[in-house]
Amino acid sequence: MSNLENLRKQAKLYVRWHRAGYHPVAAQIRATLPRFEHLTDRQVLEGSFKLSDAQELVAREHGFESWPALRTGVHVTTVNNTSTPPATVLGAVEAQLFVADLDVACEFYVAKLGFALAFTYGEPAFYGQVRRDEVGLNLRHVDEPVFVGDIRERDHLLSASINLGSSAETRQLYLEYEAAGVEFHQTLRKEPWGARTFIVRDPDGNLVLFAGPATDAS
Predict the structure, then answer these.
(1) CB neighbours of 153 closer than 8 A, spacing ≥ 6?
(2) How far apart (Å, rounded) are the C-alpha atoms in residues 217 and 215?
């Protein structure tokens, strides 16, 4: 799948989130598109937000002034490697989780959470990665606790946050994990800022948040 096709899908996802009243996307819109910056989150979500607006949002997030400029930039960097490259664009971010037993951690994420083992490194292995769809989680073996006492549980300190595209997907994944006997730090609930979330606790106490819109667009 081309990079441009992925960007088109991202724009459509922003439209779905806007229609679903997902507050985090309102903040992205206000911060990225100047014509929305004077509005409140509620005004952004209650107003018009077309696919062309979402495409402009994606373009600006990738260092371009408009969607046509992004399309040209993507084409240039893909087809003509000798032309001047566009502004530097950051890629995907990957969380790093600290674990006491790499084998146990990998087994949990693969068997319980539906990830696939991408790789392990070292003899014996001390580093590895698990992936599910576009999400990568890096697992790093440590011999000593990273957090002092119960501060992680007490302050709900997240090790990773993973977005889903819809409320239905969030609920479906929650039920999948519930059936697998996964331990939850927080069960599925609707947040006041327009999201539906739940938090999984892995064998090392890492807290992984899963979040999607509270309602789906009609």
Answers:
(1) 185, 205
(2) 7
Q: Which 8-state DSSP code applies to residue 138?
A: E
Q: Which residues contact 167 (CB under 8 A, 6 or more apart)?
A: 20, 196, 212, 213, 214, 215, 216
User: Which conformational region is residue 111 in: left (phi greater than 0), alpha (psi within -120 to 50 degrees), or beta?
Assistant: alpha
Per-residue model confidence as pLDDT tens digits over 98-141 = 999 999 999 999 999 999 999 999 888 899 999 998 899 999 99
Can you tell me the distance from the alpha carbon of 120 to that of 139, in angstroms, rounded to the nearest whole number? 9
* Distance separating alpha carbons of residues 109 and 208, to the nearest angstrom: 11
Q: Give the number of other CB atoms < 10 A from CB of residue 180.
A: 11
Q: What is the mean pLDDT of the chain?
A: 87
Residue type, position 84, single letter: T
pLDDT tens track for 138-165: 999 999 988 988 899 899 999 999 999 8
Rounded Cα distance between 136 and 118, Å, is 9
Q: Which residues contact 129 (CB under 8 A, 6 or more apart)?
A: 94, 117, 118, 119, 136, 137, 138, 139
